[in-house]
UniProtKB/TrEMBL annotation, chains A, B:
Record-linked Gene3D superfamilies: NADH Oxidase
Source organism, top-level taxon: Bacteria
Pfam families reported in the protein's UniProt record: Nitroreductase
Family per record: Belongs to the flavin oxidoreductase frp family.
This protein's UniProt keywords: Flavoprotein, FMN, NADP, Oxidoreductase
InterPro entries referenced in this protein's UniProt entry, alphabetically: Flavin_OxRdtase_Frp, Nitroreductase, Nitroreductase-like
Protein's name according to its UniProt entry: NADPH-dependent oxidoreductase
Organism from which the protein derives: Phocaeicola acetigenes
Annotated Nitroreductase domain residues: 4-159
Presence of the UniProt keyword Iron-sulfur in the record: no
Length: 246, 246
């Protein structure tokens, strides 16, 4: 599994297209992931059409990968198909609630990661767009998602046209806990984040952003409380509109 | 990637232990998954102690894998470590809200699936326990999870002592949509679920459960509306208690 070990996010792609046959076979294999009661509570919308990419881009804050990648995949939590089947079989579905959203989102995210691994193993590069859950309402509209369908992940895919440095990761001991969660002391926090803070690119980041610490770039610029609260509202509203908060 | 294609859930394990070195190296590799802004918003609690497994079991409806697997892993959405770092660096974190939970849960679930792939690639077998989000309050207590930490996935791991049949999957065309979501007609639903309904084990299931249709086993026995509503309440309450609904 060298591809997982050596993976890096790819944001620049060759103009070369991805054959439908390859894409479908990777998707089909990805559906082997564990799924709640074998219900397969997900759908995938494939975007290849340039016009559709342009329509999707604003929901992803116009990140250039959306319009430059040959393929954009939107993975959705989907209780619509299953509920329709139930109704057609004299069974009354009860999946219009938060736990069902989380079940379906889990199913969808396991498949998303499976797809990414398979894509990378086959020479493709991917970029995971975290923006999907920030503007789900816009994506619902563009992709015409019905009730009980909610977008949870977007991946841009293509043949890599770059090979960026691998980003740093926190030390294993900062993430893994034995038997119970051992909460972090100030000393442990210093230790866990020391390497990240020592990196020249992060020091440069602090300099050009005129902040005092690296953490302030996250709290004051990239992932602000006020933005998070606004996006939480959009998330709540969209979950309600999509029927997961009955 | 034959291991993804051929994968099956393993519920029976050899008594053979998993060396800590192997487990740690698989976990470390799994942390290569995409993560929101490279924040790594997850923690993993490793359970090897038999007493701890016994304590965890009720939260997972006493499924026997919890006490019989050599290792149980609980993957948690974690904004605690990151927020502590922020505070220690004169930065005010704003991650006590639903979107931050979903960001962290996404990070954790991508890592979970990555770990499963790596484990299976290395000859281990896994079982994904969907029960984690049904009784998160119990897991929080047993594993002593602090505020801004929420369990989202549990995996039992060990060397396989069985090789069950691969379960069926819905046809690709029932899951993948081109450009926009094409909602299902009754004919499409019949077609998509025809193979599943034709399987002898599913027909047998209907017979022994005395239901009229396979779908009724899901709606009336396995995933009931009343249970989903109760579990949604527990989910909401636990998210609040863990500080993600400020």
């Amino acid at each position: 599994m060298e591809s997982i070990k050596n993976r890096r996010t790819i944001r620049k792609y060759q103009s070369k297209d991805i054959p439908a046959e390859l894409l479908n076979s990777l998707l089909e294999e990805s559906f082997r992931a564990s799924t709640m009661g074998n219900m397969q509570l997900y759908s995938v919308v494939v975007t290849r059409d340039q016009e559709m990419k342009v329509k999707l881009a604003p929901a992803h804050f116009n990140q250039p990968m959306v319009t430059s990648a040959p393929v954009v995949l939107t993975f959705c939590a989907d209780f619509n198909r299953f509920s329709k089947w139930c109704r057609q079989r004299k069974a009354e579905p009860g999946y219009d609630n938060p736990i069902s959203f989380l079940n379906a989102a889990t199913d969808a995210l396991l498949v998303t990661q499976n797809f990414c691994t398979l894509a990378e193993e086959n020479g493709l590069g991917i970029c995971y767009l975290g923006t999907t859950i920030y503007n789900p309402d816009q994506i619902v509209k563009v992709l015409e998602l019905p009730e009980l369908v909610m977008p949870v992940a977007t991946i841009t895919v293509g043949y890599p046209d770059e090979c960026p440095e691998q980003p740093d990761r926190l030390p294993l001991t900062g993430i893994v806990h034995e038997e119970t969660y051992h909460d972090y002391t100030p000393e442990m926090i210093d230790e866990i984040y020391a390497y990240k803070e020592s990196l020249p690119e992060n020091k440069h980041f602090v300099e050009i952003n005129h902040t005092e610490t690296l953490a302030q770039i996250f709290t004051d610029i990239r992932y602000k409380k006020s933005d998070n609260e606004l996006m939480s509202e959009t998330l709540r509203r969209t979950l309600k509109e999509q029927g997961f908060e009955k």
